Amino acid sequence: MTSTGIGAPVRRKEDQRFITGQGRYTDDLARPGQAHAAFVRSPYAHARIKSIDTSAAAAMPGVVAILTGDDLAADKIGGLICGWMIHSKDGTPMKAGPHPALAQGKVRYVGDQVAVVVAETLAQARDAAEAVEVDYEPLPAVVDTAKARGAGAVVHDEAPDNVVYEWHLGEKGATEAAFARAKHVTTLDITNNRLVPNPIETRAAIGEYDAGTGGYTLYTTSQNPHLARLVLSAFIGIAPEHQLRVIAPDVGGGFGSKIFIYAEETVCVWAAKKVGRPVKWTSDRTEAFLADAHGRDHVTRAQMAVDENGKIIGLRVHTVANLGAYLSTFSSSVPTYLYAPLLSGQYDIPAIYAEVDGVYTNTAPVDAYRGAGRPEATYVVERLVEVTARQLGMDPAKFRKKNYIKRFPHQTPVIMNYDIGDYAASLEKAMEIADVKGFGKRKRESAKRGKLRGMGYSSYIEACGIAPSQAVGSLGAGIGLWESAEVRVNPTGSIEVLTGSHSHGQGHETTFAQLVADRLGVPIETVNIVHGDTDKVQFGMGTYGSRSGAVGMSAISKAIDKVIAKGKKVAAYALEASEGDIEFEGGRFKVAGTDRSLAFGEVSLQAYIAHKFTGQDLEPGLKEGAFYDPTNFTFPAGVHICEVEIDPDTGVTRIDRFTAVDDFGVVINPMIVEGQVHGGIAQGVGQALMEGAIYDESGQLVTASYMDYQMPRAGDLPSFQVGMTSTPCPSNPLGIKGCGEAGAIAAPPAVMNAITDALGHEDIAMPATPRAVWHAVRRAAPAIAAE
Amino acid sequence: MAIVSMTVNGKAVTADIDPRTLLVQFLREHLRLTGTHVGCDTSQCGACVVHMNGAAVKACTTLALQADGAAVTTIEGLADGADLHPMQAAFREHHGLQCGYCTPGMIMTAVDMVNRLGGDLSEETIRAELEGNICRCTGYHNIVRAVETGAKAMAGGEPVRQAAE
């Protein structure tokens, strides 16, 4: 391992600009002549729009234009789309209502866009937006996931009972048979609380139109600019794909919420041509709460069947998933194909059956948030496993170990073929780091101080490296999920890598450069990673689903292979040797068995001056591209152990220690990978202890600021104990599995298993706020475990 | 409109502004110092922290007019030319940032923390003192390490060790 190669904790190349205030986020950009947009949003969860009177607002200072849904319709601008078709178990396609970028006829959640005001200054736009008079006829609203089906309020006429789909996966008959012969059945009612992703940079967009060329530019906070361009072109119909440039510059966190193609950026691009000026919008924080896609929001009944030997023989779930008022870009796939295929967890379970009902409600759209479906599945499985062990009187670690999958590859009953893993290795290492042996003593010490101590495990698995295009296509995806790369070697030997992945905190500018430096033997300083601009970078699929390492870097690796192959040809001419005799090693092209060699930079110069060969023998230049389509998902897995201490007088839960041992396969930069684990755990702890998006009965979001929606602060968390095990992934050339979502997936059940261990009963739901814990401490354990 | 004058990163500035202009808007839009960010509008997240007359303030809830006559330092004014401030170097060395958006506010808060409390800071103190700064990426683990190191370097004048890039 070199100091900058694969496996080295290289300090990040991108940090210089961020620590000196020179980062360039969308809102930092000011385009010449730009005007500012403010959206008029619905104050009602559900209402008919009787009329919109813009006359008073239009007369206000600085107002350039006020546009409504009627203007969109007149310009034949299409609605926002959902890109994953789910079929119900009866074979019928999901029932999706239209999703106009500005409301047409009806509003369906608080925050729904009704009109946009474009003005000279932001203050003027906001003032005028306040003066737009919308006459609403309020309608009954439904907000509760469990009560959505058949509610009095019908969100979309296309789904008269508010049910978008009734989907299923697995074998019903085999599962019922397993339950019929079970010695023990565990039943849990589980709520997976609704979350708001909350990257600290809110969404922003600048739309621009060049009347001379007819081209549009959109600067936006996107995790996948090419996908945004494709949707805005092919489906929404704003501009032909080749006439629309999408630039996602520095992006301040995404966590899934910046995957989607939203109304606001659509409107900014469209409005730019209408007003003949760049149009800029930046979300304020409350708008972000109202209009960013939320995450999770499942209500589930889950059951686990166990035989007389303590072996899990069946699992079944019925989940109702809240999809919000409109189907966001990937919303339909999250509680279906990103959820149920993970219900086998790390366990050898012969029969699994999952039913999922997706429902409309008068709430913000719900879509992927860090982990997306996999945290929900892991929460179900790991709560069931822990409670089953408790009910059987077995040690939860031993019960897990007994039921772990031990031979690979392993075909689960729910689609996934796990390629490799060693779950017991992670468990043992985590137990050692967490000092599980000393827990009893610590618990007694806590008890002496009047405190309740508990410990909880989470043996999670996730499917990452999303995803083989053929596989996802067969499951209803409208797109393929390969990745692209181009490696451009300059005459001087410096290198630009153009990647379809997008970095919004992951550190690609460093890790991707490490790969190139390692493989080509060049200094890391001479490698530049280019991403986030559709005019520079070939079509690519973007960053989500922990895919940038496993898929994005594999594409780069493939392109590097081609660069080396071409370099050998060039070197053969330059060294007057046979191509077959050229070896590439340590950054030099060598003639085997001789001392004749050329440095990488000498070969790149030869490739461009092309003096030693004719263009007929060999094309000049050294630039190669690749598209890499994975052959399987990757399966990062690990064990997290949480230990809590509860103050029964206040209900405050303190995380005393949190241990994570993860198997991510090959790790490019352990410093960055550990950072991803830390951040994921923090979000998972947030879900377990404090976060929750709360709508009141009328559909008002009462947690719409940082004063109302609690996220972890430094004082809420301990330092984490992070360890690694490694079984390299066999399905991609680098052996990478992906690490971005693990913490958020693993942590919630670890925390809740610890809290319920401390409480001595299962009767508490996330978020386990001090109030909830205080009440739970005072409740006796109910006869049937419920949460 | 109203006239406001202040010193920003050592330079005197005067402007005629809408009286409701926030300090952060003044810095970002009038002076184009975009390193100071807005994250929450409600003084919770601290992405907007700058120093006003040597003390940390949240620029998203300070009117520019409140800074009239003041000396303001932003993240852009922290480094000494090409030499990073020790706290900046410590954030880089300890991977105390991911997306970078909260980072300027974190660093300005950390520097203020050391100015007030000295360079020997316990983990508990650092975590408590970061109450007004939210990071959604790092889980704070490495931020705490960075502040510990940066604080020692500020107090002792020791440069933060630079690893290979």
TrEMBL record, chain A:
The keyword GTP-binding does not apply. GO terms for molecular function: iron ion binding; oxidoreductase activity. Keywords: Molybdenum, Oxidoreductase. Gene3D superfamilies: Aldehyde oxidase/xanthine dehydrogenase, a/b hammerhead, Aldehyde oxidase/xanthine dehydrogenase, molybdopterin binding domain. The keyword Transport does not apply. Residues 20-140 form the Aldehyde oxidase/xanthine dehydrogenase a/b hammerhead domain. PANTHER family: ALDEHYDE OXIDASE 1-RELATED, XANTHINE DEHYDROGENASE. This is Carbon monoxide dehydrogenase. It comes from Salinarimonas ramus.
UniProtKB/TrEMBL annotation, chain B:
One of its GO terms (molecular function) is 2 iron, 2 sulfur cluster binding. It holds the Pfam family Fer2. The keyword Electron transport does not apply. InterPro entries: 2Fe-2S-bd, 2Fe-2S-bd_dom_sf, 2Fe-2S_ferredoxin-like_sf, 2Fe-2S_ferredoxin-type, Beta-grasp_dom_sf, Diverse_Oxidoreductases. It comes from the Bacteria. Coiled coil: none annotated. Residues 2-78 form the 2Fe-2S ferredoxin-type domain. Keywords: 2Fe-2S, Iron, Iron-sulfur, Metal-binding, Oxidoreductase. PANTHER family: OXIDOREDUCTASE WITH IRON-SULFUR SUBUNIT. This is Carbon monoxide dehydrogenase. It comes from Salinarimonas ramus. The lineage of its organism: Bacteria, Pseudomonadati, Pseudomonadota, Alphaproteobacteria, Hyphomicrobiales. The gene is cooxS.
